[in-house]
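Session log. Operator J.P. requested a structure for one protein chain; no other inputs attached. Running the standard single-chain path with token output.
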Amino acid sequence: MVNIRPLLDYYGRELEDLSFEIYSETTTFPVEVYYEMMKRGRVVYDEDIQRYYVWDAVRKSMWIESLILHFPVPPIFLVERAGQYVIVDGLQRSLTIRDYLDNKFWITYSSIPELIGKKFRELPPDLKERLLNFRIPAVIIKTPKIDLIMIEVFRRLNLGAKKLTVRQLLFVTVRTVCVQYIKEVAKSLEFRQLIKPSEGEAKSMY
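Structure written below.
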């Protein structure tokens, strides 16, 4: 059993159930199966936790190339909730798979000449098969305290990530009823005129 009193104190939650079990299992999903799960809504993401899609063309291309070459890749972390799998870590990788199989972008960088400039539908059959058959490692987390643990797992996984800003870590740590209000304020013209964000900052503000 895990004592969660420090976590409950930290998040200001009611101190009712002070212990519970966190279960996790490791599995793999073929790219084709994982893609279909996203399209059917079995794999989803929480906009209050995850960043929006921020990968550039080079990162997306290298990720798809890694899958085709069957390189070892880090697992995607999922939390099981109400018949769905919520992405806790791995959103950029997941959305890149979805968009590439939807033919929304082409490979701009690769050590494989046959990949350059190719959308998914344009791949040679052998490379297309290698991509679809690659098995993505995943860690599935199961716990009765889903929201609390989902936030905490995300926070811990991203403590060392350089690309997460202080605002993004604070955003998922606080997660109060004020979050929606803050997001609405960030969208307002008055707020933008006051802080004058750069184009990149504006895209990641909400």
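Operator note: The beta strands are 2-3, 19-20, 23-30, 43-45, 76-81, 84-89, 135-142.
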